[in-house]
């Protein structure tokens, strides 16, 4: 492989792996900014992945090449509804956010496999036929050097993810909605006195995170596993939360972290084709995102500070 | 309504509601709840073999639940029991198959290695929390995956394949008496280890200065500091003891149930179920016995549901998750129970 080919190969693989992390990580940013930890994103991704594969299998002949996009939309809706469980438990019923998030994960893992076994009579679904495939960006692909790296043989999901992160940044930092969201997460009582409905904002944030996590799960399942089983989503949701922390609760920082984690993940599978990398044992690449996150949150790599009101239900009138 | 009564009533109500919701889900899915619960019951108590296996399943649940509950008492959420269990499992198995020692040394050494490995794994989030105020939830989640990948790599490096060799008999917790009375189930001496741990932890929490300090730190860090307690030290100790217990849970799997260690595609689930056990047991050592018995039995019994009733065993995972939701939403039950008791007072 020429140098240019190698760079292009590494780059699009990193972005390919990063796309589900960026969507789910963006969901994590939204909910945490409102003061609700969503440990349940792992489970939400499972629900998204399961829904997407199921939809893909049953409606591929109806929607044809549009199947994966409709599947992603359906997953988004289903996962947003599923995340309501967390919202009801932790916002209205004031349950501990970590406990209800853990329960959400258990429920998602149990429920999806239960349904898989009920529908397919075995532990995994059939293989989906309509899958996420590469395309060339018209015009841009012909630019020398940049074209082959960024615009040839790319996955459209990668660019949608980057676009989503940028839109997320604009919403959180440049709109009244974003200001309210951050206010509710930092100082809910102050927000309440300014007439913001704290619990409603939090419900919206949790459902946004559910929808985005569902998109992340749907992209992952339709890009990598093509079917759904208990091991389809194993840690991607937690890795997305890690990307959010590494990116300091900022959509763009999170995106950078997710691309880096995607890079590390892709190296562990494609690294055997690359010089130098192939000599590094896989285990270091596997644990890299997690170790870096521990360093980041410990403040060794800049300071990551969580929103102040995280993990506390808002009770009107209490101080 | 007194707090202790509430701590007993809410879990029991949650379990009943969880089973009812489970029955409704089975009905909607076109299965018969009666057949399902009968199969579950038979899977738990059907014959001597299943009873033995049920108790075996309860063993790691006791230790994992105890680990979560102990950290909770100091106000720490140890989601890392899973990872601490995995490193403990590996450490115990490693000592079990690589050393040649007489039994009275080999078993304690292997168990100790597991506990220390788990304790070390929990020390990292503990020290980060104590020194830098880092949220232990996130660190322990990351440590879970680091544990998973590192032990997998170590097993492959040592064994050259995905399963290690068997541990030597001198390290085994096998109990021939149990085998004979339970029709050769894998029930092993680990259950004694788990029960001893419950008693020891109860003693530490209720009867020692250390336990008092740990609980005080959990209630109010500022007040504890003002009273002259070393809050940071107590946080680290609490995490390490919790990790030690999780490591012991791994030891019971390594030395009792499986007698080897193999690479894992994902988490074992025991650590997360340990969270459920602790929550149901109201973070009380005796409550943990209740939680571990219930969830361990449900989990093992569920394996019989596909054969006997044609219902996927994941039904039980769904029921357990629902029970935890109900317990977590205790606030609503509390309002309900308070209203009930107020009405009575008025009369």
TrEMBL record, chain A:
Keyword tags: Cell membrane, Membrane, Transmembrane, Transmembrane helix
- Signal peptide limits: none
Q: What is its main location?
A: membrane
Q: Could you list the residue ranges that cross the membrane?
A: 6-31, 43-60, 66-91, 103-120, 154-173, 203-222, 283-301
CDD domains per record: TM_PBP1_transp_TpRbsC_like
Task: Classify the source by domain of life.
Answer: Bacteria
GO MF annotations in UniProt: transmembrane transporter activity
Supply the InterPro entries for this chain.
Answer: ABC_transp_permease
Q: Where in the cell is it found?
A: Cell membrane
Note the topology in the membrane: Multi-pass membrane protein
This protein's GO cellular component annotations are: plasma membrane
Instruction: Give the protein's recorded name.
Output: ABC transporter permease
Naturally occurring in which organism (per UniProt): Perspicuibacillus lycopersici
Q: What is the lineage of its organism?
A: Bacteria, Bacillati, Bacillota, Bacilli, Bacillales
UniProtKB/TrEMBL annotation, chain B:
- Please provide the record's keywords in A-Z order: Cell membrane, Membrane, Transmembrane, Transmembrane helix
Specify the superkingdom.
Bacteria
Q: Which GO terms describe its molecular function?
A: transmembrane transporter activity
| CDD domains registered for this protein in UniProt | TM_PBP1_transp_TpRbsC_like
Topology within the bilayer: Multi-pass membrane protein
On whether Oxidoreductase is a keyword of this UniProt record, the answer is no
Per the record, its GO cellular-component terms are: plasma membrane
Q: What Pfam families does the record tag this protein with?
A: BPD_transp_2 (PF02653)
Q: Would I find Zinc-finger among this entry's keywords? A: no
State where the protein is found.
Cell membrane
The membrane spanning regions, by residue number, are 12-34, 103-124, 187-205, 235-258, 270-295, 315-337
- InterPro entries reported in the protein's UniProt record: ABC_transp_permease
Name of the protein in its database record: ABC transporter permease
Q: Which organism is it from?
A: Perspicuibacillus lycopersici
């Amino acid at each position: 492989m020429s140098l240019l080919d190698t760079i292009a190969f590494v780059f699009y693989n990193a972005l390919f792996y990063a796309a589900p992390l960026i969507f789910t990580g963006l969901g994590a940013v939204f909910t945490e900014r409102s003061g609700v930890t969503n440990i349940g994103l792992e489970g939400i991704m499972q629900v998204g992945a399961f829904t997407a594969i199921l939809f893909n299998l049953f409606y591929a002949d109806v929607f044809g090449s549009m199947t994966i996009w409709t599947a992603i939309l359906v997953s988004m809706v289903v996962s947003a509804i599923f995340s309501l469980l967390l919202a009801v438990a932790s916002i209205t019923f004031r349950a501990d956010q970590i406990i209800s998030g853990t329960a959400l994960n258990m429920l998602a893992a149990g429920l999806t496999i239960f349904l898989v076994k009920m529908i397919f009579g075995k532990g995994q679904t059939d293989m989906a036929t309509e899958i996420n495939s590469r395309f060339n960006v018209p015009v841009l692909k012909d630019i020398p050097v940049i074209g082959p790296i960024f615009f040839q043989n790319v996955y459209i999901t990668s660019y949608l993810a980057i676009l989503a992160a940028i839109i997320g940044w604009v919403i959180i930092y440049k709109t009244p909605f974003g200001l309210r969201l951050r206010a509710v997460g930092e100082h809910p009582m102050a927000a309440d006195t300014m007439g913001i409905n704290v619990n409603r904002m939090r419900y919206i944030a949790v459902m946004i995170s559910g929808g985005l996590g569902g998109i992340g799960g749907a992209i992952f399942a339709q890009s990598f596993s093509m079917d759904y089983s208990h091991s389809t989503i194993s840690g991607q949701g937690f890795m997305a939360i890690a990307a959010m922390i590494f990116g300091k609760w900022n959509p763009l920082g999170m995106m950078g972290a997710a691309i880096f984690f995607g890079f590390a993940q892709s190296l562990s599978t494609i690294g055997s084709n690359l010089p130098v990398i192939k000599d590094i044992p896989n285990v270091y690449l596997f644990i890299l995102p997690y170790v870096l996150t521990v360093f980041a949150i410990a403040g060794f790599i800049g300071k990551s500070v969580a929103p102040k009101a995280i993990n506390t239900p808002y009770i009107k009138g209490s101080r | 309504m007194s707090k202790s009564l509430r701590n007993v009533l809410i879990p029991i109500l949650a379990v009943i509601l969880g089973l009812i919701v489970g029955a409704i889900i089975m009905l909607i899915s076109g299965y018969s709840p009666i057949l399902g619960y009968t199969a579950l019951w038979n899977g738990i108590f059907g014959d001597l073999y299943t009873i033995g296996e049920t108790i075996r399943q309860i063993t790691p649940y006791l230790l994992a639940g105890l680990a979560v509950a102990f950290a909770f008492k100091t106000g720490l959420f140890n989601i890392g029991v899973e990872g601490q269990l995995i490193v403990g499992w590996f450490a115990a198995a490693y000592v079990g198959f690589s050393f040649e020692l007489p039994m009275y040394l080999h078993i304690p050494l292997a168990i100790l290695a597991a506990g220390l490995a788990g304790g070390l794994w929990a020390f990292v989030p503990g020290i980060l929390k104590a020194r830098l105020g880092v949220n232990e939830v996130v660190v322990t989640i990351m440590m879970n995956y680091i544990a998973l990948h590192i032990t997998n790599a170590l097993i492959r490096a040592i064994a050259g394949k995905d399963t290690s060799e068997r541990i030597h008999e001198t390290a085994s917790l096998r109990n021939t008496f149990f085998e004979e009375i339970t029709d050769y189930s894998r029930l092993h001496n680990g259950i004694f280890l788990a029960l001893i741990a419950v008693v020891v932890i109860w003693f530490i929490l209720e009867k020692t200065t250390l336990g008092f300090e740990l609980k005080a730190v959990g209630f109010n860090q500022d007040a504890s500091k003002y009273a002259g307690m070393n809050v940071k030290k107590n946080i680290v100790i609490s995490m390490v003891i919790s990790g030690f217990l999780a490591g012991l849970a791994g030891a019971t799997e390594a030395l009792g149930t499986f007698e080897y260690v193999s690479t894992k595609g994902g988490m074992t689930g025991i650590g997360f179920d340990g969270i459920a056990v602790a929550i149901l047991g109201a973070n009380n050592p005796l409550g943990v016995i209740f939680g571990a018995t219930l969830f361990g039995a449900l989990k093992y019994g569920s394996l019989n549901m596909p054969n006997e009733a044609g219902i996927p065993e994941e039904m039980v995972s769904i029921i357990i998750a629902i029970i935890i939701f109900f317990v977590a939403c205790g606030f609503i039950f509390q309002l309900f129970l308070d209203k009930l008791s107020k009405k009575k007072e008025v009369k």
